[in-house]
Amino acid sequence: MNPQVSLECRDINLSYGTTPVLRGVSLKVEPGEFFALLGPSGSGKSTLLRLIAGFNRHQSGALLIGGQDVSAVPPHARNVGMVFQNYALWPHMNVWDNVAFGLVERRESRDAIRRKVGAALELVGLQQYAQRRPGQLSGGQQQRVALARTIVIEPKLLLLDEPLSNLDKQLRVQMRDELKSLQRKLGLTTLFVTHDQEEAMTTADRMAVLDKGVLQQVGAAADLYDRPVNRFVAGFVGTAN
Ligand code: ADP
Ligand code: MG
């Protein structure tokens, strides 16, 4: 298992041009915690994840992984794994090569690649599908490939950007449970972004609600539900959508 790390955002501000998108965001995810970030479309969730992964730069504030300020560390050196809403798999490569890609880029040995890709595919239950291309898989299977490709690089931190939103309702519930048990098994510090309050409530140890780039409330799911600090949180957390 990877050593567990914390993730901390301290008073982070980010603007695209002159438009502020993240405003004074402060958040701490504890080592091994499954933390959900909930907010409506356009509230800045993906922007925050890209910032943590190193693809966006904040104008002020600090970003710490494992207690170290990583603001100046490039994405590939941050050891952060990210799963995107659209999976972003290579359509021309089979499942095995999609999962192996990051290891090949790192010039790991053939033996190490064989071992790690095999283990990752087993973890998500896709050993039988190694030779298929993404287009020959169901949505749920493609999602598992995306997960395998991310965990195979042994990240310290797992970022999930609405990974279930392209799946139909029944599969979404099944994948949600799989995701949760995989996270438990790996003990990975996880930041899970969703606009679905039920998804957040059922998976997360704690959660935060973001609106227009401002964190409204952080706490255990039950706290936000029972004691929302404002009307926005009450409406968003309390309403099934
Ligand atoms: P969410 O993931 O919560 O839907 P985003 O982080 O994608 O929200 O977007 C937050 C805001 O920033 C939106 O108003 C969006 O239009 C804007 N935005 C996102 N990416 C860019 C970009 N590259 N350039 C300018 N504005 C952007
Ligand atoms: Mg988004």
TrEMBL record:
Assigned GO CC terms: ATP-binding cassette (ABC) transporter complex
UniProt key word Membrane: yes
ABC transporter domain ranges (all copies): 7-237
Keywords noted in UniProt: ATP-binding, Cell membrane, Membrane, Nucleotide-binding, Transport
UniProt GO molecular function: ABC-type transporter activity; ATP binding; ATP hydrolysis activity
Name the record gives this protein: Polyamine ABC transporter ATP-binding protein
Region of the whole protein represented: 1 to 241 of 363
